[in-house]
Design goal:
This protein is α/β, with parallel strands linked by helices and 181 residues long. It contains five helices and five strands, in the order E-H-E-H-E-H-E-H-E-H. The protein has a five-stranded parallel β-sheet, with helices on both faces. Helix 3 links the parallel strand 3 and strand 4.
């Protein structure tokens, strides 16, 4: 059984990123262990915390360390990833030399209500994952534009073609991630 951690970059209720994440998770094998890892309660990273980390940092790092692979879904905020997601990456990568991210295979998906589909956020996240030593699945690239037209009011993906595309991508990620066990 593979343990998949899911990080959703949008912390708002009924977020489209959560809907995309749910559609990706639907493509995982039934025996997968899936954990949505909350990033909304992490205080802003501060190097002063390296010596005495807040409990939320300790719990977050512990949960990431337990995962075999990570699924990231990010919105695009001002041509970048959300502050909450960037903070989570920083918290998990510190103290220096104690990163919990290294070697974990990653899947990146981005979404936006506009036609750019979160492309810039997607690539910025990928650059961070290079630094964090996370092998990242290259294809298919998962850019979901006009997501509001593919979703219901709660943010769930309702478009059958999009659901099938995301489930197929997840199956490819399962194969990709298995190479790193």
């Amino acid at each position: 059984m593979t343990k998949y951690g899911v990080l959703v970059g949008s912390i708002r209720k009924n977020s489209y990123s959560k809907g995309v994440a749910d559609a990706l998770v639907a493509g995982l094998p039934e025996d997968s262990e899936v954990t949505y890892i909350n990033i909304s309660d992490l205080p802003l990273y501060n190097q002063d915390y390296d010596m005495q980390s807040p409990e939320s940092y300790v719990a977050f790092r512990s949960e990431i360390a337990k995962q075999d692979a990570i699924i990231f879904v990010t919105p695009e905020h001002n041509r970048s990833i959300s502050a909450a997601l960037k903070n989570a990456l920083d918290v998990g990568s510190r103290p220096w030399g104690e990163s919990v991210w290294g070697g974990k295979p990653a899947l990146v998906a981005s979404q936006s209500v506009g036609g750019t589909a979160g492309t810039l956020a997607h690539h910025i996240l990928r650059q961070s994952l290079v630094m964090l030593d996370m092998p990242t699945m290259q294809q298919p690239e998962l850019y979901i534009g006009g997501v509001q037209n593919l979703s219901d009011d709660e943010g769930h993906i309702t478009n059958s073609d999009t659901k099938a595309f995301l489930a197929d991508a997840t199956q490819k990620f399962v194969s990709f991630a298995s190479k790193f066990k």
